[in-house]
Write a structure and sequence with these properties.
about 80 residues; 2 strands; single chain; two-stranded parallel ribbon; about 30% helix; alpha+beta
Length: about 80
């Protein structure tokens, strides 16, 4: 059985936003993230990561901004 590709999704759906709103009532305002996977498409062959084919470069800044959008945290730090 071949595993399915996981796609990176930037925009949040209405269901995502409802869940995020529910979680914000008890979530932290400051996050320390110790795990991320920066992605530079030019480092890999064109078919290496099909789920990331259309998202371009994913750097630390994009990762922090996505966490801010998805969690509502005021500050996101990383190691």
């Amino acid at each position: 059985m071949r595993p399915t590709a996981m796609n990176y999704s930037s925009p949040a759906t209405k269901a995502d936003m409802k869940l995020i709103g529910d979680l914000l009532s008890f979530g932290p305002q400051e996050i320390y993230d110790v795990h991320a996977h920066p992605h530079q498409p030019g480092f890999y062959g064109s078919n290496a990561w099909p789920g990331l084919a259309d998202c371009g470069e994913l750097g630390c800044g994009a990762h922090r901004e996505a966490l801010r959008r998805q969690t509502g945290a005021r500050a996101v730090h990383g190691l």
